[in-house]
Design brief:
By secondary structure, this protein is an alpha/beta fold. It has one domain (about 10-475). About 25% of the residues lie in helices and about 35% in strands. The protein contains 14 helices and 26 strands. It has helices at about 10-20, 25-30, 45-55, 60-75, 110-120, 120-130, 150, 160-165, 170-175, 185-195, 425-435, 440-450, 450-455, 460-475, and strands at about 35-40, 95, 130-135, 140-145, 155-160, 200, 210-215, 225, 230-235, 240-245, 255, 260-265, 270-275, 280-285, 285-290, 295-305, 310, 315-320, 325-335, 340, 345, 355-360, 365-375, 385-395, 400-410, 415-425. The strands form three sheets. Strands 5, 6, 8, 9, 11, 12, 14, 15, 17, 18, 20, 21, 23 and 25 form a 14-stranded mixed beta sheet that branches. It has a ten-stranded mixed beta sheet with strand order 4-3-7-10-13-16-19-22-24-26. α12 packs across α14. The chain is globular, with a radius of gyration of 22 Å.
């Protein structure tokens, strides 16, 4: 259920209030909580077996992990994007266990971890806006909850580790089917050391009218978070899944390498919203992919507003007739950061459709890159696709690049691609300042208008959070232009 505001002026006023009150400490605070167990630095066969043993996993999962490690070690690093030489494989900690308990009741979460998520507003959002939530701290889910009305209808929502134990056959049906371990080096790494994430299964014909959310928190330096999330919308179902991510800033870099697999079965409607605010000391390298069956609808809505380097390209494989997908993405490249983002849509069946709208903002020397793939296979009769890439440069040294890759093998297909690059203009700033806004407020208003295509698709409370994060970056400039 999305929070609707009919009065647009009221909406803008609320957004500006959130922008004015934002503080960098809201997200970048650190905790003194130490894990009860850690595998230490470095990665080898013994570490992978240790993780599996700690989790008391079935033998098929242990064997899967060891095979994935072999694939990871054999695959080269990607050399076609940003510089990844700063990833320190040997000095990264691949598994930190925060506590022995997995709580179903918020009061049972360890006090210091609970205080962390309370600072981030997670319990309040759960009570007001969510049908259920999962909280992950470091390498493990520490809490999961689902409202009884959905539990009674057969909905399954918990951290993936718990799902492996409680629903092994259901997990095995989907685990690493859309994203095999051989897909890329970081997918193989996740396969070897994955921990946490979410498993969401919505039965046939069930329509969940409130979002479900998972929130991921990394706390320590030189660490990795490798969650694996699986979302299944069975035939005729509908669901909106939201994830949020934060981490404090450290001098030493950390690594986030997740897998997200989404299965939108016939006549289902699945929406996945992600607001990621990793600190400037995190390499963010997830792999996200959806299989979209006949007459199903898959919607990606993403905000990437943190990290040192991000490479992320959510993809939809349109496998059945009349399958549709949309990908709406905001990417903010702050000072000293690189955002290499985009989307992929693969049309594999007749009468399929895709829409990709990518908005990027570059601040100071930030570099924003759009890298996308659109493919219409032979036989995808009367399919159509639209790609729109818009970039906003805040300073003279800001950078924006677009690398579209389009393959149209079906003559009856319809395809369009648009790209624009602009700067905040002096005339717009002057006009808004003449209406009583400060320079920061005027710049923020222009940015909000630029982002409106995506912002209006996000529940209001999460749109406010995203806007506050944008303001944090712009506020560090002191002056814009």
């Amino acid at each position: 259920m999305e929070v609707q505001v009919e009065n647009k002026e009221e909406e803008i006023e609320r957004l500006l209030d959130g922008l004015k009150n934002s503080k960098s400490s809201d997200w970048e605070f650190r905790d003194t909580y130490n894990p009860i167990y850690s595998t230490g630095k470095g990665l080898n066969k013994a570490v992978v077996e240790e993780i599996s043993e700690i989790k008391k996993e079935p033998d098929w999962m242990r064997r899967f992990r060891l095979k994935a490690l072999e694939v990871f070690q054999s695959k080269p690093m990607p050399n076609w994007g940003p510089d990844l030489s700063g990833i320190d494989w040997e000095n990264t900690n691949y598994y930190n266990k925060p506590d022995e308990r997995k709580a179903n009741n918020w009061e049972d979460v360890p006090d210091q971890i609970k205080q962390t998520f309370e600072k981030l507003g997670i319990p309040e959002m759960e009570q007001k806006y969510l049908a259920g939530s999962v909280a992950q701290y470091e390498s493990e889910g520490v809490y999961h909850s689902l409202k009884k009305v959905w539990e009674d209808k057969g909905v399954v929502f918990m951290d993936l580790d718990s799902a492996v134990k409680n629903h092994p056959d259901l997990v095995k049906e989907y685990f690493c089917k859309a994203v095999p371990m051989t897909d890329n080096k970081f997918a193989a790494l996740n396969g070897a050391v994955w921990s946490g994430g979410s498993f969401l299964y919505v039965p046939k014909g069930v329509h969940i009218d409130m979002p479900l959310q998972t929130y991921f928190r990394m706390n320590n330096e030189s660490t990795g978070q490798f969650e694996h999330t699986i979302v299944v919308g069975d035939e005729g179902s509908s669901v909106h899944y939201i994830e949020g991510c934060t981490a404090p800033r450290w001098d030493k870099d950390s690594l986030h390498s997740a897998i997200v697999e989404i299965y939108a079965h016939k006549n289902s409607n699945v929406r996945y919203t992600s607001v990621q605010n990793w600190s400037k000391s995190v390499y963010n390298m997830p792999t996200k992919r959806a299989w979209v069956d006949e007459n199903a609808k898959m919607e990606w809505v993403g905000g990437s507003l943190g990290s040192k380097v991000t490479m992320i390209y959510p993809s939809s494989y349109l496998r059945g007739p009349h399958a549709t997908t949309s990908n709406l993405n905001i990417s903010l490249a702050g000072p000293g950061t690189v955002k290499d983002t985009g989307a992929k849509a693969i049309h594999m069946a007749p009468y399929t459709s895709s829409k990709i709208i990518a908005k990027s903002i570059s601040i100071e020397d930030g570099k924003a890159i759009y890298r996308g793939l659109l493919r219409m296979n032979k036989g995808a009769v009367n399919s159509r696709s639209r790609v729109q890439c818009d970039a906003l440069l805040i300073n003279d040294e800001s950078q924006s690049y677009t690398y579209p890759h389009d393959e149209i093998y079906e003559p009856s297909g319809t395809f369009s691609h648009e790209a624009t690059v602009g700067k905040i203009g002096t005339e717009e700033l002057t006009y808004l300042r003449s209406r009583g806004l400060s320079e920061d407020e005027a710049s923020s208003m222009i940015v909000l208008g630029f982002l409106d295509d995506v912002m209006r698709e996000i529940p209001m409370e999460f749109a406010i959070e995203m806007n506050r994060l944008v303001k944090l970056e712009m506020g560090k400039l002191g002056a814009v232009g």
